[in-house]
């Protein structure tokens, strides 16, 4: 009975040593294909010119730290969430607030816009992800139509609609990610593998199929098959929590931002890290990253209140943007790439172009 | 006591077995050379950089954030 489930010659110790030797094998296989560095190949690419990027809009209205934001597909509206429990929908052209709802919890760490533009999702310390339909009827109370979709056993750190309003992907402090049906609230798939809180996720661009990447406090970035729930690839080169992950526009790579003060680029087909974006002078963590439309620029929001702009191919920093008066906590490029928005612990959001 | 121990053992073993299966799958996946991957990243950038409004700025009148129009409605 004590040996139930064991095969011949198999012990816990033998499985552990097989795991170690496989890890070694994985590194060897990856190293065999490491014939050149990305920045070396990129030497032949023309250098980028000078950048003039300024704050074009400042969105004021949150009463406390802004924790998360997302763009609407209309390239104009923005949803943002804050430590004080408020979720606000803004028209970024005019800076007007179009909707506001107060969540029953503080620290609303995640928010997302539905692809149709007709709803938003948010959650945080309530361990849930809730969907609010957006209505322009002044008589309707937005909070009344709230629908609880996801239930985790710890805080919600990130959420994203998939290609439709019908499904939501969530990441949680409970160490898992999950895919939910919005209408029924049913759990469609769960993703287990992270050894600690999952802090971020990003869906692959639709052309590249049903995968997503997640990053966590276990310093790992993991790529998942949405249908099977299986982890396809994992990367462990960061030296601290991974706060943000974002796919390269082609879907063949993704970037990450970490508390180890670096951002990194991982190529999925080469199955390895191919670039590190760091400087000795940058010692504070990167909280959020996103690519410009072509993938040539990587914007990183940092805990030292700045935004660093990196040349993705050459690995060098092309610009540093000042303006926020506290940590930058969230950053997204607009759907058509004309601007990017950053949110900060200084209670504001800024749109840069 | 022995039963509790064996339950722990079975869980640990099944976890260890899953870890080994996962690593096998990851170790034996098909990979391409970094030189090829890098070339493809460069090619994508090159193909799209002309349409990237944050690199090749469009005229101010076409970027709603850069233009100096004031958004007011006359009531």
From TrEMBL, chain A:
GO terms for biological process: dark adaptation; G protein-coupled dopamine receptor signaling pathway; light adaption. GO terms for cellular component: cell tip; cytosol; dendrite; nucleus; parallel fiber to Purkinje cell synapse; postsynaptic membrane; presynaptic membrane. The keyword Glycosyltransferase does not apply. SUPFAM superfamilies: WD40 repeat-like (SSF50978). CDD domains: WD40 (cd00200). SMART domains: WD40. GO terms for molecular function: G-protein gamma-subunit binding; GTPase activator activity; protein-folding chaperone binding. It comes from the Eukaryota. Pfam families: WD40_Gbeta. Keywords: Repeat, Transducer, WD repeat. The keyword Repeat applies. Belongs to the WD repeat G protein beta family. This is G protein subunit beta 5.
From TrEMBL, chain B:
One of its GO terms (molecular function) is G-protein beta-subunit binding. Residues 9-75 form the G protein gamma domain. Keywords: Cell membrane, Lipoprotein, Membrane, Methylation, Prenylation, Transducer. InterPro entries: G-protein_gamma, G-protein_gamma-like_dom, GGL_sf. PROSITE patterns: G_PROTEIN_GAMMA. GO terms for cellular component: heterotrimeric G-protein complex; synapse. CDD domains: GGL (cd00068). The keyword rRNA-binding does not apply. It is found in: Cell membrane. One of its GO terms (biological process) is G protein-coupled receptor signaling pathway. It is a lipid-anchor. It comes from the Eukaryota. Belongs to the G protein gamma family. G proteins are composed of 3 units; alpha, beta and gamma. Guanine nucleotide-binding proteins (G proteins) are involved as a modulator or transducer in various transmembrane signaling systems. The beta and gamma chains are required for the GTPase activity, for replacement of GDP by GTP, and for G protein-effector interaction. This is Guanine nucleotide-binding protein subunit gamma. It comes from Terrapene triunguis (Three-toed box turtle). The gene is GNG4.
């Amino acid at each position: 009975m004590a040996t139930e489930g064991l095969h011949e010659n198999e012990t816990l110790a033998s499985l552990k040593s097989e795991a170690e030797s496989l890890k070694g094998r994985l590194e060897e296989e990856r190293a065999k294909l490491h014939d050149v560095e990305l920045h070396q190949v990129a030497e032949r690419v023309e250098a980028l010119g000078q950048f003039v990027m300024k704050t074009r809009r400042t969105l004021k209205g949150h009463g406390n730290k802004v924790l998360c934001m997302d763009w609407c597909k209309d390239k104009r509206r923005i949803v943002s969430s804050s430590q004080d429990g408020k979720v606000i929908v803004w028209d970024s052209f005019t800076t007007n607030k179009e909707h506001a709802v107060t969540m029953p919890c503080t620290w609303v760490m995640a928010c997302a816009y539905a692809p149709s533009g007709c709803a938003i999702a948010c959650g945080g310390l309530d361990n849930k992800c809730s969907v609010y339909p957006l209505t322009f009827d002044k008589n309707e109370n937005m909070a009344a139509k709230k629908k609880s979709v996801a239930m985790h056993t710890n805080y919600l750190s990130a959420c994203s609609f998939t290609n439709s309003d019908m499904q939501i992907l969530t990441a949680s402090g409970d160490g898992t990610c999950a895919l939910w049906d919005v209408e029924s609230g049913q759990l469609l798939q769960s993703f287990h593998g992270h050894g600690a809180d999952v802090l971020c996720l990003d869906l692959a661009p639709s052309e590249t199929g049903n995968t997503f990447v997640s990053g966590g406090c276990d310093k790992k970035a993991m790529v998942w098959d949405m249908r099977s729930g299986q982890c396809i690839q994992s990367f462990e080169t960061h030296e601290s929590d991974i706060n943000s992950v974002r796919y390269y526009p082609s879907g063949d790579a993704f970037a990450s931002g970490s508390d180890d003060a670096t951002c990194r680029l991982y190529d999925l087909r080469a199955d390895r890290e191919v670039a590190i974006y760091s400087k000795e002078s940058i010692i504070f963590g990167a909280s959020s990253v996103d690519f410009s439309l072509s993938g040539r620029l990587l914007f990183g929001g940092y805990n030292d209140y700045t935004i660093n702009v990196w040349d993705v191919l050459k690995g060098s920093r092309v610009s540093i943007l000042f303006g926020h008066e506290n940590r930058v906590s969230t950053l997204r490029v607009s759907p058509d790439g004309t601007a990017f928005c950053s949110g900060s612990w200084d209670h504001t959001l800024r749109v840069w172009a | 006591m022995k039963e509790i121990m064996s339950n722990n053992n079975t869980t640990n073993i099944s976890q260890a077995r899953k870890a080994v299966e996962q690593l096998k799958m990851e170790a034996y996946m098909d990979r391409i050379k970094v030189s090829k991957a890098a070339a493809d990243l460069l090619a994508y950038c090159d193909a799209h950089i002309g349409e990237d409004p944050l690199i090749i700025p469009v005229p101010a009148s076409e970027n709603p954030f850069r233009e100096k129009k004031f958004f007011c409605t006359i009531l």
